[in-house]
Amino acid sequence: NVPLPVPTPSREASLTQKLETALGSVCPLLREIMVDFAPFLSKTLVGSHGQELLMEGKGLTTFKNSHSVVELVMLLCSQEWQNSLQKHAGLAFIELINEGRLLSHAMKDHIVRVANEAEFILNRMRADDVLKHADFESQCAQTLLDRREEERMCDHLITAARRRDNVIAGRLLEKVCNILSNKHGAWGYTDPATAKLEFWKLDAWEDDARRRKRFVHNPRGSSHPQATLKAALEHGAPEDAIMQAREEFHAQLASSHMQQSQSSDLMDDSELLTDDRDLDVDLTGPVNISTKARLVAPGIVAPGMMSITSTELYFEVDEDDPEFKRIDPEVLKYCDHLHGKWYFSEVRAIFSRRYLLQNVAIEIFLASRTSIMFAFPDQPTVKRVIKALPRVGVGIKYGIPQTRRASMMSARQLMRNSNMTQKWQRREISNFEYLMFLNTIAGRTYNDLNQYPVFPWVLTNYESKELDLSLPSNYRDLSKPIGALNPSRRAYFEDRYNSWEHESIPPFHYGTHYSTAAFVLNWLIRVEPFTSMFLALQGGKFDNPNRLFSSVALSWKNCQRDTSDVKELIPEFFFLPEMMMNLNRYRLGQLEDGTAVGNVELPPWASSPEEFIRINRMALESEFVSCQLHQWIDLIFGYKQRGPEAVRASNVFYYLTYEGSVDMDVITDVVMKEAIENQIRNFGQTPSQLLMEPHPPRSSAMHLSPMMFSTVPDDVCMTMKFPSNSPIVHISANTYPQLPMPSIVTVTTNQQFALNRWNTNYAASVQSPSYAETPQNQSNNLPLSMDPVLLQTGNNNVSALRRHLGDNFSQKLRIRLNCFVTTVDSRFLVACGFWDNSFRVFSTETAKIVQIVFGHYGVVTCLSRSECNITSDCYIASGSADCTVLLWHWNARSQTIVGEGEVPTPRATLTGHEQPVTAVVISAELGLVVSGSIAGPVLVHTTFGDLLRCLEAPLGFISPENIAMSREGVIVVNYERGNIAAFTINGKRLRHESHNDNLQCLLLSRDGEYLMTAGDKGIVEVWRTFNLALLYAFPSCDSSVRSLALTHDQKYVLIYTTF
């Protein structure tokens, strides 16, 4: 038995294993090549019959799906594949290699291109990243700066608010101290020996004609003994004068030290308050504009920062600026706007202005009748500021639309677009008002002493004892400049002009100007705050007495003979008599002849400063001046200001006084720029040129009013008898033709009123007076028609109730003319005297009560309404038995008395009386309230509630009963038993008279020139207010006269007599 052989791996299995081992790593590559290049290889690997070996049969499927090496070897070793490979493999693989090379090159180029593009994209992304990073850093930095600026602005506004609060607190403290310590206050002095010395300053309040006439208390005032002493030492005054000046100076120092010690605690408290971080910022909106600005005020140019929100304007001075530190502290204390805040609702007009002959400033006129002026770095800033401020234009007075464009108008454009020249030609406005208008639009302003308003000398006779204003020889030739009035002096100036040979300076006639800051301060040296400004200009001392303004006649002579004196006048020469008086008792030195300089020496024809001002104003408004004033306007504002016409008129000044003569922006030399600015600042600036052609003349009075030369009609135009026998105690004449129903409102003692129609077409004729009792007697040619409701009453109680004010009046009060006032349109009647201490507003249409106003603690005894037009608000003042006067605001839109809330509240409470108030009168234009009480004083308050002064009554004039005040500032008081006294608004008594009639009423004409009185004797008399000279008496009435009224045109007087 042979053993069976042990099974061993077969030869085939060993071969397969070896193939797998040898070709295992190559097969995947081979499969991949065959599959990837199948489209190419299928055309090359063909069989004997031309078939495609790869695509037909199992070739491609094997390469794709088989994982066995043996199958691949068997496929490739088959006869067909061997034959095809032997015939075509070499060529196929050569082509394949070539194709691969081409593909590889193409792929390389593609990859390189893609790489380059990728690198470009990456570089661009990197650059974008860098830019974005830089932009992000820039935005971060800008945001940081913005936040810092906002924080700085917030700190600035908070600091400014605190400073403003301190200023306001100081003013309130002064006001309270004044209320308590004045003569009529709770702590008032009664012994004249203990009365303190009072100082006064000119207030910035302007009336409608832009006159600053009001003097107010000056708590910081003094007689400037240090300036007197310094001047005495420098000018070589006598030894006794120096010793007296030293004593006064040391006395002043001692009193000032006492005042400082008394107020140091208060200053410490205020400084503590400024450290309180919990105070709120009084900024109600986002800051629209914040820019550097200069506050331009009299004697001051203060750098600081202006901020404008959506509702307010702020200015905060930069106290660290060297320019601010150079300002004299004595001048600085008179500036109220260093830490200023103004609501947009206060802004009334905005004018573009020049500063140092550059158009980079604006002047803002406020509801408080003051103005503020700011200068900016450049003109674009000016435009931005005007656009951010309210759109008020240049106001409503000049007939120019209230647009921001109007605020940017040049002086010539304002002149061209206004209607004031036509008004002046038609004599609707006075010469003074027209000259103030020209000064205003030409850039002249009270805020910049270098550009102060200019007025002409109009008179030449300052030596005669009597002045005849009808003589032409007493008037100046207004067709010539002041420097050319004297022929010899004119020849001197023209010779200088013709012989001038300087290369860089153009020829000129006059090296000095007609208006400079020094000239203005010299004119006003006796009036604070100009006294302090004058001392700051003169180095703290009064100038040599021989150079001070001491005599009107001497000043006129110097303007005619001195080659360095060609100055014109200022507006105050026509309205401010106090400039001639040394009210604050300054020691100004002595002239060469030993005469002490005190009050200004007046011409012999003027017995007082008031008379001089009045006559000078009369001369300005005279026909001689009116017919040639346009020629003076040509010289100062018109076509003779510059150019060939100025040369022919001998009217050329130094070239740096003219606008456009130098561009400050192109001057880079700091020293040169400062020198030019000082030249402009100190040696005068010519107003902006308004006209390039001759100014039209004024129309003659005869041409405009030919009837003024016709026969005078009879005094009595009409007599009307009312159905009621009750005496009329009040008449209001609301006769403006623009009213829906011009009317005369009358009120009787039994509280019945009437709304009588006024005929605006009535013209008085030379005929007998009409007598009207019934409608049949009334015709179209009568001035007045009776209230139709009264005519229909008869036995009709319903109609009677439509004209009755009720029976609630106090029986303790005597109903008088000043117990009632009416609105301008006669729609409402305000009455006082009610037992419940109220006063009431009635509708004149229905006699229904519209409003009951409480505020007093006693019966309201008298009322007064301020002047206003048809659409404007006004003040109503109420006096009471509680010894106070309350000031109320009548809103024309709501036609009610308004307050801070829904309940009417008074704007101010006026104190000082110790007995019931009997009379009150108020003027919104002058900002004054004048009131009198039983056996008491006549007090003058401001509309803000400050007591200014007491009008000292003449001896024997005890109890004021009626008071009247004109817009010219004359106050007339009627005391008991027919005693009359006339005062200025600043307290000087002009004249007093004792009448032989018991006067019941008095009335002033609109211009204050004439006074009308009437009383128990039934005689209406006309007086000249200034000197209380009796001018005319109307025919006597049959009984006493209780009330008077004047129509709007001042042509007709309405008189009621008790039948």
TrEMBL record:
Any Pfam family the entry gives: NBCH_WD40
Alphabetical keyword list: Membrane, Repeat, WD repeat
CDD domains cross-referenced by the UniProt entry: Beach, PH_BEACH
Domain (BEACH-type PH) ranges: 282-390
GO molecular function: protein kinase binding
WD repeat placement: 992-1023
Compartments, as annotated in UniProt: Membrane
SUPFAM superfamilies: BEACH domain, PH domain-like, WD40 repeat-like
Domain BEACH, chain residue ranges per copy: 409-698
Top-level taxon in the UniProt lineage: Eukaryota
GO cellular component: cytosol; membrane
GO biological process, one term: intracellular protein localization
Entries under PANTHER family matching the protein: BEIGE/BEACH-RELATED, NEUROBEACHIN
Name by which UniProt lists this protein: BEACH domain-containing protein
Species, as recorded: Clastoptera arizonana
Classification of source organism: Eukaryota, Metazoa, Ecdysozoa, Arthropoda, Hexapoda
